[in-house]
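User: Can you write out an input/output pair for a complex, sequences first and structure second?

Assistant: Here is one pair. Inputs:
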Amino acid sequence: MDKNIPYKTYLEESEMPKAWYNVRADMKNKPAPLLNPATHKPMTADELSAVFCDELVAQELDNENAYIDIPQEILDFYKMYRPSPLVRAYCLEKALDTPAKIYYKFEGNNTSGSHKLNSAIAQAYYAKKQGLKGVTTETGAGQWGTALSMACAYLGLDCKVFMVKVSYEQKPFRREVMRTYGASVTPSPSETTEVGRKILAEHPGTTGSLGCAISEAVEVATHTEGYRYVLGSVLNQVLLHQSIIGLESKAAFDKLGVKPDIIIGCAGGGSNLGGLISPFMGEKLRGEADYRIIAVEPASCPSFTRGRYAYDFCDTGKVCPLAKMYTLGSGFIPSANHAGGLRYHGMSSTLSQLYDDKLMEARSVEQTSVFAAAQQFARIEGILPAPESSHAIRAAIDEAMKCKETGEEKTILFGLTGTGYFDMVAYQKFNDGEMTDYIPTDEELEKSFAGLPKIG
Amino acid sequence: MDKNIPYKTYLEESEMPKAWYNVRADMKNKPAPLLNPATHKPMTADELSAVFCDELVAQELDNENAYIDIPQEILDFYKMYRPSPLVRAYCLEKALDTPAKIYYKFEGNNTSGSHKLNSAIAQAYYAKKQGLKGVTTETGAGQWGTALSMACAYLGLDCKVFMVKVSYEQKPFRREVMRTYGASVTPSPSETTEVGRKILAEHPGTTGSLGCAISEAVEVATHTEGYRYVLGSVLNQVLLHQSIIGLESKAAFDKLGVKPDIIIGCAGGGSNLGGLISPFMGEKLRGEADYRIIAVEPASCPSFTRGRYAYDFCDTGKVCPLAKMYTLGSGFIPSANHAGGLRYHGMSSTLSQLYDDKLMEARSVEQTSVFAAAQQFARIEGILPAPESSHAIRAAIDEAMKCKETGEEKTILFGLTGTGYFDMVAYQKFNDGEMTDYIPTDEELEKSFAGLPKIG
């Protein structure tokens, strides 16, 4: 055990960040703007405000202000479950017999089970402040829907969740958590929206996708008085709110007098990774420090490592603005054997630009190796990780084992975004030796890329 | 918000307790000894050591030493998930509009989802130290089995869990968590033990009970070379280990300069309540301070409030020592509509004696009112509580509302023992308005009391 480095470091309330950090302010190449799908011109604040709350539109478009104050009401809510601990993984280090020093920022210690609550409370707060009645959203694995229903219950806001039908049926407990928090949960695609009926007519018996559920949630938000749509990942505003993860991590490291060498996060839409790395990336962009930053994605849904950097649709119904991002094409649907989350076809525009500028790396990992890492971690560190988070665990263990070979004492930080309590069907498959891997073929991807919109 | 009282108080690692507190040392009337079921004479250390590890036998019988050092290995494990936070429930206070100051000690922030891990690691450690191969146990709702399998995985010890059949079938995810931690899980009653086969022959199609599962686990432990039996509640040794909850709470209160007036805990076998209250009860026993201490139990399984204080069997197969305790009779089985844990027919001997000496109160609450409190708490404080813990929430809210009537600014501490992630079937019943209450009739209890053994 290193002297002066405890197992867990908690900031005092007085040390908690009071402003979010907007990494776009320090980016030389700004992320590409959202485009109007009809005109292919950048979306204006006016256009966006039909979908999002006004203050969130401002945050979405703000590429200039490096710090945005966190309102007091959100700071108070954060105090209920934050600061999250920065954990030194002494037991894992010992089990791996590595000279590497491994840390993780654990975001699973709240009922939503993940980091999603950091942005849910912010988005719900601005909706409430604007005098809205409620918000709509989609959820896949269910972490975002749970987080949003918690935030809405706290603020007394109505919450309508469209849950991908296959998850709705396979994860009844997730649904019940949301209902316990007072949300209405509709399996998507549904007969309750025009786009849902259209999708059902075209694909009878479909079990849905995140892209379908987004289209339905946006339709309801834009057609119901006093409602707006909110999204749990991908957007600039979400990365902004999630910067709390990185800011707390950085503050805790500074307190300990430690500087990480490698920062690792799992990447689906990019919310956790973007949040975790933001203040470190800021230092890198400003030339103040250097870090190796690694995004880890599933081999079955490899947007960074095998996708195209192009404008694409964000949803199946094509009602949303176009985003420039690393994408597999909006028609891409990960193989049914894919067990966890991280199944969105695209990636945050901000992270896509940083990746394209070679300021970070990416790698893909197969799910059986991810669950092996998850099980190993659970048995050693005593936390049952979410499948999503376990992608980062896999890469962190791999990097620590490289240190063992080379003898380097690198300091590794990874984001442990959440817990796997609602993913036991996947763990059961793994425990029973029935989990398989899947990697899309080049032909499949080419077919999907053919659906990319032609821009400019 | 009170100045200087944060939402959450964490002790520093250096402030964490280094010894458990043994409340029996300060009790004038010691808890009655365990009796040999054949001879009705007090169990000797030798007799007990066929069932339990030697060091745990010593702890079980130790009524003299007030403090017992926590071994370094256990302190290290505790550091992975402890200290647990002492939370000031500002949001709940505001929602209730009460002058009461409400605190809770939250033990759910670890993968086992409850306080059970505090004793699981201790019991597994002593088994390992004795050079054993493994341990056996029973589990009902699954929190104890999960905690034990985590502790055994960490120490490299085999873990055989007998899980009450109805839970095994209704809670497949609990089972999978234990399997992920490498435990073997057998539905009880099973064909793998003599007592199991006997119970199955007498009650074909039975869905099991905690009492059956205990009998099977004890049989396997006592008939397998290198194995001992461990138990998650009721025993003196378990209350000793769980004193870490109360010691941390007390240390945190002392740090804040606060003294609670009322201390509330849910009571099944008594492990959490006994642990939470122990240092406060110690002060009370020594005449140094006074506290109102309230045990809360389900109206459907009311051992304190409607049971007899008598020697009884601890298990269905009657293979275990007899314990003097408040009991409903070992043949008592709570109504099938009972949703949560807290379904053991008896109660810790230590707590039984303290209750009989009028050093604490008890009350029973009905489950629909418990789930109403659970839902209210979840929406306000952002934690989805376990049904067991919610009994304490119910009583804490009731006490806070009394303060609102009287205007008294009482300080209330309650134990929030765990999370309800694996209890969503019960929440669903409540959400759908299908949950009902059940109170056993006097006739039912009398019938059950008739089965009490005749002693002396």
